[in-house]
Amino acid sequence: MKKKPSQNKSKANLKKVVAKSSKDKSKHSITRKNKRKKLSPWLFFLLLIPIALAFFLINSHINKNAPDVPNEITAIQNSDALPTELSVSEAHALYTDGAFILDVREADEWHQGHIPGATLIPLENLIYAYQSLPVSEPIIVVCRSGNRSALARDFLIKVGFPQVANMAGGMNSWIAAGYDLTTGD
Question: What pTM value is reported for the model?
């Protein structure tokens, strides 16, 4: 049986269409791959935007809650200003003269024993509560050994308190010297 020429043409046309279709598919898949490569930096950028925005919002929230502290010490110390660090005996002498005692330890440390009449503001809360402290009185800052109180002293000086001193040795030295001590609230 002999095939008609029209059948041969239609089979040939069909082969051409199939061949062209598979070429188009391979071209199409190549352009998809190229598009993916071209889009990947944009995709990375789009993913980076929400992360950067979240970081910015968290950072601004933290900074909004912190006081505006100048970078330099702005308090001008006058001639009768306190030295930045006092011995326990010097601190006791000022305490008996009515100096303000600021204890920056934690509440459980405070309850175990503190200087009578002292005010407790834990170091981590000081940036929120420093406005309640007396600016015109000498302030002696106390902690267990003198490290946290030195940080508190530096902070208070930076925010404008002119007469702030750290008690060297902290409550450990106060207790060793046998000075007044009270427990509880």
Answer: 0.58
